[in-house]
């Protein structure tokens, strides 16, 4: 297949491009580089032996997208492009609805016009809302998120339900990610946050390498075994492979069910923040000083996936261990102390 990957210079998109190329697919990337570097495209090429076609383009530019899609032989689109910082979305809701909702709408319109109607969307566990019981299952209703980022994901899922209902030629999937961490084992691509990281793992690795003094653990008095929050962390390479499995399921046969299909991509296992810190120290030998800080607004105490639907329908399951995830995150950080701005990129 020829797959258009929007946001393919970003963290999950780059790993997915690598897996697509490894499976023999052709890849074209569209990214406006608002949260990534063109260097990531070269690194995808270094790992894969083939550098994907790349267009620096905003997904809100419908005519430009249409020009990429039209007559290109592109069979399917995986849509990663969007903004993802929860706290920022509270301050800048319009930017989030514009990039994530209007951006997705623009892409779907361009696809429809070009006759490309197979679509995989980067959704999130956040769509279940704060009141859902754990583990999260796909047959639970969409909730209302406590922030614009989460609501933008819910809005796009609703848009896809309506689109698939109106036109049965569409084949679409919403992949609800839990907490992706880790990096490609080559150490060549990984998560490269700009400024102070919001997410746990980049913060941990930046503390371990000495770029930050200590980790603030947000809350030590939750009703969890060690008082810190529990999440379902999964290796980004497993997550990337979930996209190939979803594409296979959408395109396997013409009898595949119409309508938006949703799959959780998680391990089904919960890990606390303290367990992350301790396991990271054990597998890397690096030290991570931390202090218990006040709770972060909007954090849920504990959630994880029921991943059984993906196992049953996609024959997908996460195979990497927590140790693999943390070792690979550390390899990426130590080989690229300044992310893609680092000058050396030898692998261990
Ligand atoms: P990322 O920021 O590394 O990648 C997103 C990419 O999209 C970046 O390269 C950015 O430059 C690009 N982009 C953003 N807006 C764009 C636009 N308007 N036009 C073109 N390109 C644009 O983020 P990621 O972690 O790789 O996340 C990818 C997707 O997965 C996002 O939609 C995110 O919301 C979703 N997701 C991520 C997580 C996570 O924990 N990382 C969890 C659940 C869902
Ligand atoms: C994980 C745990 C923090 C940083 C968010 C989005 C979610 C998804 C993934 C996109 C929490 C704790 C963190 C730190 C800490 N993104 N933590 N100190 O909040 O589960 O999910 O990113 O869809 O939608 O909400 O991930 O990595 O921010 O936090 O103690 O400096 O680590 O409190 O318990 P989260 P995270």
UniProtKB/TrEMBL annotation:
<feature type="domain" description="NAD-dependent epimerase/dehydratase">
    <location>
        <begin position="3"/>
        <end position="252"/>
    </location>
</feature>
<dbReference type="GO" id="GO:0003978">
    <property type="term" value="F:UDP-glucose 4-epimerase activity"/>
</dbReference>
<dbReference type="Pfam" id="PF01370">
    <property type="entry name" value="Epimerase"/>
</dbReference>
<dbReference type="GO" id="GO:0005829">
    <property type="term" value="C:cytosol"/>
</dbReference>
<dbReference type="InterPro" id="IPR005886">
    <property type="entry name" value="UDP_G4E"/>
</dbReference>
<dbReference type="InterPro" id="IPR036291">
    <property type="entry name" value="NAD(P)-bd_dom_sf"/>
</dbReference>
<comment type="subunit">
    <text>Homodimer.</text>
</comment>
<keyword id="KW-0119">Carbohydrate metabolism</keyword>
<comment type="similarity">
    <text>Belongs to the NAD(P)-dependent epimerase/dehydratase family.</text>
</comment>
<comment type="pathway">
    <text>Carbohydrate metabolism; galactose metabolism.</text>
</comment>
<dbReference type="GO" id="GO:0006012">
    <property type="term" value="P:galactose metabolic process"/>
</dbReference>
<keyword id="KW-0413">Isomerase</keyword>
<protein>
    <recommendedName>
        <fullName>UDP-glucose 4-epimerase</fullName>
        <ecNumber>5.1.3.2</ecNumber>
    </recommendedName>
</protein>
<keyword id="KW-0299">Galactose metabolism</keyword>
<keyword id="KW-0520">NAD</keyword>
<dbReference type="InterPro" id="IPR001509">
    <property type="entry name" value="Epimerase_deHydtase"/>
</dbReference>
